[in-house]
């Protein structure tokens, strides 16, 4: 959980880095923003992605899991690291290592922030730890 009480909501994720997909979702699961790498990989423009729910871009067989992880993040106020497969605008499947965290303001959840990188297909425990730690450090420092 990240407390960002003093940071205003922005159109771009504050923790964007080269070669990493960064995104924010509202508490209902709709995209608020995706960085340029996410737009490039997914094929969706910034405006298009803002009309999408997270369950609309993941493969159908993982939609329930993603909804569960999303709810778990909000209810338990914890971060989650997992692999997901998305469907791009041109219908390609892309496997991503993903970490999501709840963002709090004044003690209340305001959004979900996430970071994703293309996956080689094996999310090991050490890789999950690296992804989670990298996300936390870049989020807290405001860098990527």
Explain the overall architecture.
The relative contact order is 0.22. This protein has a single domain, classed as PAS domain (Beta-Lactamase, 2-Layer Sandwich). The model is unreliable at 1-16 and 135-144 (pLDDT under 50). A hairpin with a 5-residue loop joins strand 2 and strand 3 (31-34). Strands 1, 2, 3, 4, 5 and 6 form a six-stranded mixed sheet that branches. The chain contains five helices and six strands; from the N terminus they run E-E-E-H-H-H-H-E-E-E-H. The chain has 144 residues and is of the alpha+beta class.
> How many angstroms does the end-to-end distance come to?
18 Å
Number of helical segments with 4 or more residues = 5
How would you classify the helix and strand content by structural class? Answer: alpha+beta
**Rg to the nearest angstrom?**
14 Å
> What coarse outline follows from CA principal-axis ratios?
globular
Would you list the SSEs in sequence order as H and E? EEEHHHHEEEH
Number of strands: 6
Please name the CATH architecture. Answer: 2-Layer Sandwich
Strand content: 25-35%
The whole-number mean of residue pLDDT values reads 79
Domain module count: 1
Sheet bearing the most strands, described? 6 strands, mixed
Low-confidence stretches: 1-16, 135-144
> What is the share of helical residues?
25-40%
CATH superfamily: PAS domain
The top-level CATH class is Alpha Beta
**CATH fold type:** Beta-Lactamase
